[in-house]
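Ticket #4471: structure export looks truncated?
Reporter: QA, pipeline team
Priority: medium

Steps to reproduce: submit the single chain below to the structure queue and open the exported record.
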Amino acid sequence: MAEKVLKVALAGAGAFGIKHLDGIKHIGGIQVVSLVGRTLDKTRAVAQQYGVDHVTTELSEALERPEIDAVILCTPTQMHASQAMECLRAGKHVQVEIPMADSLAQAQALVDLAKQSGKVAMCGHTRRFNPSHQYVHQRIARGDFHIQQMDVQTYFFRRQNMNAKGEPRSWTDHLLWHHAAHTVDLFAYQCGSPIVQAHALQGPIHPQLGIAMDMSIQLRAQNGAICTLSLSFNNDGPFGTFFRYIGDTATYLARYDDLVTGRDEPIDVSKVAVSMNGIELQDREFFAAIREGREPNSSVAQVLPCYKVLHELEQQLQG
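Actual output as written to the record:
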């Protein structure tokens, strides 16, 4: 008997929403039936490209459609928590892109509501799913690699309010509550040990954007492993996040879905998972958890400790 087709609404037809649409094309039994965007014309153009029939500028309109089982939110950071809770109250499973909130209070409220709802609520902490990081995680799980230190660089050139496609953005990104969240969560996840010490410094505040453009973060896990994270919106290439795992038996450098040794020797990670696309793997986990009635990897509850650390760091920076 064929399994039920899961019908999905996707909110946010920008750069990251398109990444999800591209990933979902390769997952059987999933149909995106509603696309929510900020402007109707641009959203309709994306919907036509991906064969989505329903287009709207209002999330509430999509949530009123009874056939929709689940929602993926790729909207501005400041809307994530409130929209995720709106989806849960409407009886829909929800995957919200990272970060699930830009404050600890909102993150906690989302986790509490998710528990009450009984629905799958997941946050897109993609680094847990990239094959490069899964390879390292599998070695750690087998007990033949232990992290001593992680050195991470997250670098972009965004002195204006632009998105990943180089287009003007309607909201302001944030080094701490968005980009640092990837590494803070990944460090604790890979170590299998909670973060017990965290420190942060930030550079000058941008006069127009109102955010720090440079930041440095240090972390220590309960098991003794340490992490140093450097972030910048001022870096004129190369762009992206680069992870160096220094362990007791090896050194690895992860660049998104690629992995090399400390001597820059390529490692084949093509057999680690069914895809080399971290976003697709993230979506596969979301839909599998819905079908199997279980908590997904990267559930909002699992990643909440990350947001507690971000809150502590924010308090330091404001002190």
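Status: closed, not a bug. The export was complete when the record was re-opened. Leaving a note from the reviewer for reference: The chain has two domains: 6-125+278-298, 130-272.
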